Amino acid sequence: MAEPEPEPVHPPPPPPDSLFFSSGTYVVQIPKDQIYRIPPPENALIVERHRNPSVVTSSRRRSCCFRIFLPIFVLLLLIIILALLLPPLLTLPKPPVIELKKFKLTPSTRNFLINLDILNPNSVGSISFKSPSRVSLSFRKNQLATTKFPLIRQQHGSEKKVALSLRAKSAFPKELKRRMKNNKTKLHTSLSLKMNLAAQTIGRLSNRRNVKFVVTCSFTVNTLGKNSRILSQDCESERQ
């Protein structure tokens, strides 16, 4: 007699909780009103302003102050720059200061030799003497001799020695001839030296000006003979 076949054994059903953790692919749907996104920067800035109103007020004050004081600062800066630059540009150059150092008359050649010291008193710039610059020597309003002034350039604050040789072109006045023959040192003679000087000055920022200086020196010598010495002098310089 055949034995009966055994019945198949089925595994027990899984517990209820294990249904949610079994392997497989699942799709989870979340309602749209529950989806969270990163807010844009504009929203974050608005929230920050609402949270810190003092910071917003402070930034507004700074911006307002900057807009008000920046134009004032720029205006003051321009005024300072103009105050520094304009005076040197508008100030006219000072005329040279001239001093007579030596006087000598040579009767045989009718030449007068006069040595000068020239000072450029300007604190900035140079003076360039140019043509036509003339020098004349007079005795009691009678012109004795003339010559050209040398074309030299002189830097500010510097001194330069200049030798002038003036030659008479006409006869001397009788009074002057008499004094030339008399070698007495007590017979003082007063003369006048006039210089019409055309020049170009260079100041700050290479500012160039064409000017004319007139220098008049009234001086007295002890004699017109040998060993002449300048006893006194008065030189005046002006700009025209």
TrEMBL record:
It comes from the Eukaryota. Keywords: Membrane, Transmembrane, Transmembrane helix. InterPro entries: NDR1-like (IPR044839). GO terms for cellular component: membrane. It is found in: Membrane. The chain crosses the membrane at residues 68-90. PANTHER family: LATE EMBRYOGENESIS ABUNDANT (LEA) HYDROXYPROLINE-RICH GLYCOPROTEIN FAMILY, OS05G0199100 PROTEIN. This is Late embryogenesis abundant protein LEA-2 subgroup domain-containing protein. It comes from Cucumis sativus (Cucumber).
